[in-house]
Design brief:
The complex is a heterodimer. Chain A is α/β, with parallel strands linked by helices. In chain A, 32% of the residues lie in helices and 21% in strands. In chain B, β10 and β11 form a beta hairpin. Chain B is globular, with a radius of gyration of 19 Å. Classes of the chains: A alpha/beta, B alpha/beta. Chains A and B meet through α3, β3, α4, β8 and α10 of A and α2, β3, α3, β8 and α9 of B.
């Protein structure tokens, strides 16, 4: 079956609050323009489109339909949509190229997180009969997860603060990052708790944004970029929805997805991890066996900007960019979905030979 | 680089009803899944991945409910992919599951589609204003009625055609124990006397609102070898176009025509009316039968109603359409498209029981959604494709 490569990535600026609608169109039009300019492709040349977005984030049904206006879908196009982060849209687009039906595809994701109270909205992902009615919000659940690891001695509040400092300082070189720069860890640890044991710096900011990636079959990839990022493995796995039935301090689904995607202990130059909370990066590094040699989230990662439903796709794009620019030979990208890292996707890319 | 062959190994569905207070959302899905796995003679260890589809999350009031359903869907430790492409989603879900096999990634994939409309209020969910769009405020029937009127004007179809479709589909539905509505004795006069809802669409020409789920097990050629009569997937197609733009033909949308043309080409079909033995077409309002017959190329433009009028779309006609009773007999929205795909497969697998079309070897399943703008369809056959 056809090999597939990332040949271009573009994203909207990550912002706390955009003036655009929840349609995604205002964010996506300039993103697609960047992709067309980078590859020489036009909207008519793309064999398959797939988007990731959420009706609940937009507060209405069928929110993905309006976004199609950013493409220009007449004459009609071949198109699909996942109710998940754009990383899963990329997975569906990857499948489509693998079948040989098409040789180019665009996967995109968008979300206006500022349209509602994000952490309340995300509480609606929980069991609707027994858990959601209690309204445990996403930050509270992450707080419980962090507390379990602290009490088990798996990490310290300083380990968590170190992740935040590194991420936001790295973000200084990312022109799209929402948060750039950081106080040092001692100062951060003197701040009050936001949701004990989480402080503000432990949580990804609320971000509006969009991202898109052009995929091409390996045969055609060189037409669009000098150094395509060949996808050598991509896989995802989900865990139980029962928070009390999971060991929240580990991530067996990330480990299993990694193993299926070809994470076997051999070296990565860079890893982009979709960890919206500092302690979740620590969990993921452990699950994926990423040691101190691997450059983690050089873009600043989700702690510097986390557009919902585009944040995971952005990790794949940032990792691919490191390969396409020649900075990295082998990269890992990760995306997550659901409460407390319930669903995880791992994508391994290498410079095409 | 050619695709791997893929086939339907088994199908399952719930008893569709206005309200299923006897089961949770998880229980509803599981009812369809258990039947599909039994039909396919597979166990959980055989299932490599799960693909789930449903229409908007606001229909049940749960954000991305597959996250909460992961355990009930048997997906824990496996890949779980959620598809949402409006009313075409049930078909799109089956197509994505097919891609997982056709791409060589997996051996056996479980596709599930469902809707539990009684958990929330679909009219409310569909009535939230969209930025920069004029609200229609008329529900689906009010939205589609002008398209139907336009079809009648353009084709010169007599007024009773819509009622004929309703009588046929409801009588067919009476042969299907899973159908929501069972009206074996319904007559043309009854349908024509039923209340006018959105002129020219009458109450009896309208789909019900159902709780229900559908499931399909799709396998590779290897997996199909263990199956006595798999439903081979010969072709799949999806197309989308915008909701509105100047000059758009809502009656005979280009996206549907393009999808059908691609479908027939892939399946090597040059004369669909002759070569397709049974069709399961998404007909939520009865007049959409002749409209889609034309859009899909079973009849020339303006001629579809003549097939209906001549009885050619009844079981025993040239092209039995919706032998299962169709959307007019059961409409769990997110699952309705998959039911069309699944019923097409049941026909070629010889497993359609009371509503089996004799000798059906090649069948098509069709779904559409949004403002007649999203299309998904497949052709399945008893014979292994070339």
């Amino acid at each position: 079956m056809a090999d597939v490569a990332v040949v271009a990535f573009a994203q909207a600026p990550q912002e706390r609050h955009t003036s655009g609608t929840t349609n995604g169109v205002e964010a996506l039009v300039p993103v697609f323009e960047q992709l067309y300019a980078a590859t020489g492709l036009t909207n008519r040349d793309i064999g398959f489109w797939c988007s990731g977005s959420s009706d609940y984030l937009s507060g209405r049904a069928f929110s993905f339909i309006s976004a199609l206006d950013a493409i220009g879908t007449f004459p009609p196009i071949t198109e699909s949509h996942v109710e998940a982060d754009g990383a899963w849209a990329l997975y569906e687009a990857w499948l489509k190229i693998k079948t040989g039906e098409v040789d180019t595809a665009i996967a995109y994701g968008f979300g206006k997180s500022s349209a509602g109270l994000l952490r309340r909205t995300l509480a609606l992902q929980l069991d609707p009969y027994t858990v959601a009615p209690l309204w445990p919000d996403s930050i509270s659940i992450a707080g419980l997860q962090a507390r379990l690891g602290l009490d088990a001695g798996l990490w310290s509040e300083r380990d968590m603060a170190d992740v935040a400092v590194r991420s936001r300082r790295d973000a200084e070189t990312n022109p799209n990052a929402q948060l750039q720069g950081s106080k040092d860890a001692d100062e951060l640890l003197a701040e009050p708790y936001f949701a004990d044991p989480l402080r503000k710096h432990d949580c990804a900011p609320v971000t509006d944004g969009a991202a898109a990636i052009v995929l091409a079959s390996a045969e055609r990839a060189a037409e669009f970029t000098e150094r395509p990022a060949l996808i050598t493995g991509i896989a995802h796995r989900i865990e139980s929805s029962h928070l009390g039935g999971r060991d929240l301090t580990s991530s067996p689904s990330a480990a299993a997805a990694g193993a299926a995607a070809g994470v076997d202990g051999s070296r990565f130059d860079v890893a982009e991890l979709h960890a919206p909370f500092t302690h979740q990066e620590l969990i993921l590094r452990s699950a994926l066996g990423l040691d101190g040699d691997v450059r983690i989230n050089p873009s600043g990662g989700p702690l510097a900007g986390n557009p919902m439903f585009a944040g995971g796709l952005t990790r794949i794009g940032e990792a691919a960019n490191r390969i396409m620019s020649g900075e990295a030979g082998r990269a890992l990208a990760h995306a997550t979905s659901g409460p407390a890292l319930q669903h995880n996707l791992v994508c391994v890319m290498e410079a095409a030979r | 680089m050619s695709k791997q062959r893929a086939a339907v190994l088994g199908t399952g569905q719930t008893h569709h009803k206005a309200k299923r207070p006897d089961v949770s959302m998880a229980g509803l899905c599981r009812e369809a899944i258990d039947r599909a796995m039994l039909d396919a003679q597979v166990e959980w260890k055989d299932i490599d991945a799960v693909v789930v589809g449903k229409a908007p999350d606001l229909f049940e009031g749960v954000m991305m409910p597959e996250l909460y359903l992961a355990d009930a869907l048997g997906a824990v430790g496996k890949p779980l992919l959620r598809v949402h492409t409006a009313g075409s989603v049930g078909g799109a879900t089956a197509i994505v599951a097919s891609s997982l096999v056709q791409s060589g990634v997996h051996e056996r994939v479980l596709a599930v589609a469902w809707e539990k409309q009684s958990e929330s209020n679909a009219m409310w969910a569909l009535s939230i204003p969209v930025p920069f769009n004029m609200p229609v405020g008329a529900g689906a029937g009010g939205y589609f009625a002008p398209h139907v009127r336009s079809y009648i004007r353009r084709s010169g179809a007599p007024q009773h055609i819509g009622s004929l479709v309703a009588v046929k589909d409801r009588r067919n539905g009476a042969k299907n124990p899973y159908a929501h509505l069972h009206q074996p004795d319904i007559t043309l006069e009854q349908v024509q006397a039923s209340q006018m809802l959105w002129d020219p669409i009458r109450y009896d020409e309208t789909c019900p609102s159902s709780d229900g789920a559908a499931a399909i097990v799709i396998g590779s050629e290897n997996a199909a070898a263990a199956c006595a009569n798999p439903g081979w997937i010969h072709a799949t197609a999806m197309r989308s176009e915008p909701t509105t733009f100047a000059g758009r033909d809502q009656v005979n949308p280009q996206a549907g025509r393009d999808a059908a043309a691609s479908l027939w080409k892939q399946a090597g079909i040059t004369d669909p009316l002759r070569q397709i033995d049974a069709a399961e077409i998404y007909v939520p309002f009865s007049w959409f039968e002749p409209m889609w017959l034309e859009n899909l190329g079973f009849a020339a433009e303006g001629e579809g109603w003549k097939l209906t009028e001549a009885g050619e779309t009844e079981i025993g006609g040239k092209l039995p359409v919706n032998a299962s009773g169709g959307v007019l007999s059961s409409n769990p929205i997110g699952a309705s498209g998959m039911l069309r795909f699944l019923e097409a497969a049941r026909q070629v697998m010889g497993r359609a029981e009371e509503h089996q079309v004799d000798g059906a070897r090649t069948a098509m399943g069709h779904a559409y959604g949004g403002g007649s703008q999203f299309f998904s369809m497949w052709v399945v056959g008893a014979a292994r494709p070339e």
